[in-house]
Every structure is written in C-alpha cells, then in structure tokens.
Amino acid sequence: MTQTSLNVAGDFPLLGRTVRDGKRLVYLDTGATAQKPTAVLDAERRFNEKHNAAVHRGAHQIAEEATEAYEAARAAVAGFVGAEFSEIVWTKNATEGLNLVAYSFLNATLGLGGTAAERFRLAEGDEIVVTELEHHANLVPWQELAAKTGAKLRWISATEDGRLDPASFDVIGEKTRIVAFTHASNVTGAITDVPAVVDRAKAVGAYTVLDACQSAAHLPVNFTELGVDFAAFSGHKMLAPTGIGVLYGRGELLEAMPPFLTGGSMVEIVTMEETTFMPPPQRFEAGTQMVAQTAGMHAAIDYLNNLGMDRLAAHEDQLAERMLEGIATVPGIRVLGPTTPENRLAVVAFDVPGVHPHDVGQVLDDQGIAVRVGHHCAQPAHRSFGVHASTRASAGVYNTNDDVDAFIEGLKQVVKFFG
Amino acid sequence: MEQLYQQVILDHSRERSGEGTLENPAGQSFQVNPTCGDECNVQVNTAEGKISELAWTGKGCSISQASLSLMYEMVDGEPVTEVEELGETFRELIHNRGQELDPEKMDQLEDLGAFTGVGRYSARVKCALLGWMALRDALIQAQDGSKEGSGE
C-alpha cells in the first residue's frame, strides 16, 4: 500500500454483503450513487429518533432542534464548498437545482421578479452554451429553456480523448447569456479547466452554471474561488442520503432571482391577490423539506472533512492510475476519455469492441463486480465517441487496490467469455 | 454465466438470421430500451393469415440480438395466430424468474427455451422481449392494413 491509500471500506455496512452466490462485492458504481458510511445512516436515524419536527415553524423545543439541525447542515455545506451560508439552497438533487436556475430565468423572462430580475431575461437572439459532455441533467433543462424563450442553444465540443475542446470555446460570444458546463464528466472522468471557461463567459457578461455532481464528492471544491455563478450537486453521490441536493448561487444573484417552486415556507405576506417572497435561501425552498436527509448530508460532510478532501483525491488519483494501467493490459479495450491520469477522476468508461456493455456488465456482475452499463445519461457524449453505450467503472473513497485488481481480472474474463 | 449465455444465444448473437429491411412493409415497429438505448425495428407482411415476409434491424446486447434472430427463424412463414401464441408463451417464460414452464410449453418454445435463464436477471427481461414487442405491434398494423386492403 502506498501512503496515499485509504482503508475505510469497513465504515460502509453495505460493502460487507455478498452478491451472486456468496461473492465479495466490488462496488465500482460510485459515479451513479455512493454507498453510505455508518455515521450517515446513524445521523439520519438519530434525527428521526430525537429531533424530528417541521423546520422554521412551531415554537416547541423539538421544532427548534430540527431547525437548528437543518441550518447547521447548510452551514456545513457552505464551508465545504467555500460559499456563504445564504448562498446554499437545498434541493432534492442536482437535477432539481439545475432546473431551478433554468426556471428562474424563464420566470424572469415572463416578467416575474420585477426590475431586479430583468438581468435574467432572455430574448430571441440570445444564446445558451452547453457542452457535448453534459449529463442530460445539465443539457435538457437548457434545451427546454431555449425552446421556451427563443434563445439559441450552442455547444462546446469534445476532443477525441473526452475533454472540452478549447478550440470550440469561441461559441461563447457576445450573444451568450448562460454557459452551463460540467466540472467533471460522468463519462470520461475529465476534469474541466473551469477558470478557462469562466474567464471567457465573464468577458462577454454571461452567467455560468457548473454541474459539480462528480467533482464535489471527489475533489476539494471552492465555488467562490472558481468564480462560477451557480453550481449544483447531489448528496447521494457524496456518501449522503438520496433526496438531498444543493444549489449554490452567488448571493447577489439569488437575491435578484424569482422563485421556481412556490407555496408554503417561502413567503412573507400572502393575500388573495398577491404574495411577497422570503429572501434566499428560503425563497427557493417551498414546502416541507427533506430534513432528516440534511442531517445525513451534514454527517457525510463531516466524514469527508475528517478524511480530508486532499487525501481522498490523492487516494482516488492512485486508483485511477491503477485502473488505466490495468485496462491497458487487456487487449482491445478502448477507453472513452483520457488514458492518462492527470486532471481526471477515477471514472473510466470504455468500449469492448464486439461486446455490448450489457454483456460486459453481466459477466462482471457474475464475479461480484458492480459497474454501470448504458449511456450513463449522456447520449450526446457517447455519440461524440461514435458508440451507443459503454461500460463504466467509477471508484470512491472506500475502494482499494484489490477492488481495481478484481475488476481488471473480471475484464479479462469478459474478453475470454465473448472472445 | 453459461446458464444465461447458452450456446444457442451466443451463436445467434454472432450469426444473425433475418437482419434486413423490406421494401413496403404493411406493419413495422420501432422499439427502444431506454435504460440502455438498445433499439430494434421489425418489419412484417402477412398473406393468407401467415407471416409472408419478416425482417429486422437492431443494435443491442447479445440477448436482444439473439432473441430477434431466433424469433425470425421461429416465426417467418408461420400462421399469425400461432406466432401470437408463441409470443405469449415466450413472454411467460421470460417472466418466470429463471424457471422452465411446463413440458408442453417448453416443447412449443423449442430453441427459445435457451432464454430460460434470462428470467433470473430482471434487468435483462426487456432485452429478451424487445424484438417480440416490436413484432406484436408490427403484426397488429399489418393485419389492420390487410383488413382495410381487403375491404370494398
């Protein structure tokens, strides 16, 4: 073991189970969803056993405790991503966070939000820029927004090794109003040079929206330093429960933005004719929120902070390197993405020529190895590689060199079985 | 693994029968499996209550491609009512969680019995049935068409 290796699988109860007739589980599908440490499971249970009540309403002790837990989790998230407390909005997942931004732009375009929101209005001739490597969650909402407002959707293309092509950054121009892009591709694992995109967007006065789903769980991330206007990520990919996500929005922008979902908890004065809205973040948190999940999110962030994101990133860098080296020893495998370990995550999608990903995944599954097969919610990214679907191995904090070695052995079995 | 990937499935996924297109199909159906993006297009003509022409194109895993290929061999030229019955029996097999059906039905299925093991893997059920879904849909269109065609 090198000194960058972590050994924490024991903290994750699910990883102790067996699959397919007693085989050790080798979980390499963290890019889809991460397993949860005992600390997270306990935090959620403890909240429900001791502190469960509606937040921001009610004057009883339990309601106060619930509200404190809910807001303490927000503070933990803010600290984790270099944001101010009021810049963190709870959502159910990253998809909702990205839709929240898109719908707020739409609502502003419809005239809601008054003069403060005029800056978000879109018109025909405006352009929204995305990239070919986006997860559908950071592509489809912008297609929809373009269709509703008459704005034109343009995109940054991908290079042959699955990175954003700087040569195509010139699609960001004077007409660009929004640039939505991923921090790290969930297919190729490539980490985006965020400042390069942000500088370009800022130069033309466009807003930037970062999909941080893959990055927030695996790298030290500071949205303020990155200079993005909005960013979204999901709890379930970073050891926290499902049903909890985060939208970061630069304070000044959230202040000016009209809400997306409306209803209880986000209002000041409601008459039969009209309603005034709370300041952010409450303005964007309509209805009863996923409070127990925020307690789980808080525990996940504490867990990650205790390990140290730098150590975690170094651990996963080493796994990525081992995975790439291992795959290179299996004849014929084509990696969809960078084949070298710099500026990439331990997320490796690949094609086994002549063998469909479903079949690859099935043979791996038979050996207890869990990977993702299909298009990973990124059909255009696959199309850019000229394939329909792929198999993807993605590592997390709990994976070990043994897991990677088992995966490589499994891959050799795949080639043998279908060869 | 060998239980799932029977030799007949591996063979049909490599050497496929019936791949192609028809000039003027009376019925055709395009089906996709949204979880993996697999797709197939089945085209059919009927005459005198039988399948007179059948062709398919598709891309997907070995299970889906072998299912299409074997389906072609089993049903091309056969009476539509028997094909529909066979399709029902095959659907029953695939939903039977990896267990064989009664011997009479297994006889009816012939080589399709090789797909028995697919039923153990819920994620693969759709792979085996994709082609048959397309065939059922295409046959409905072809027969509606022939009824219209035979009308005064």
UniProtKB/TrEMBL annotation, chain B:
A Pfam family (short name) is: NifU_N
Q: One GO biological process from the UniProt record? A: iron-sulfur cluster assembly
**Where is each NIF system FeS cluster assembly NifU N-terminal domain found?**
5-127
State any single GO MF term: iron-sulfur cluster binding
Residues folding into a coiled coil are none
Q: List the SUPFAM superfamilies.
A: SufE/NifU
InterPro entries referenced in this protein's UniProt entry, alphabetically: NIF_FeS_clus_asmbl_NifU_N
Q: Which NCBIfam families match?
A: SUF_scaf_2 (TIGR01994)
PANTHER family attached here? IRON-SULFUR CLUSTER ASSEMBLY ENZYME NIFU HOMOLOG
Write down what this protein is called: SUF system NifU family Fe-S cluster assembly protein
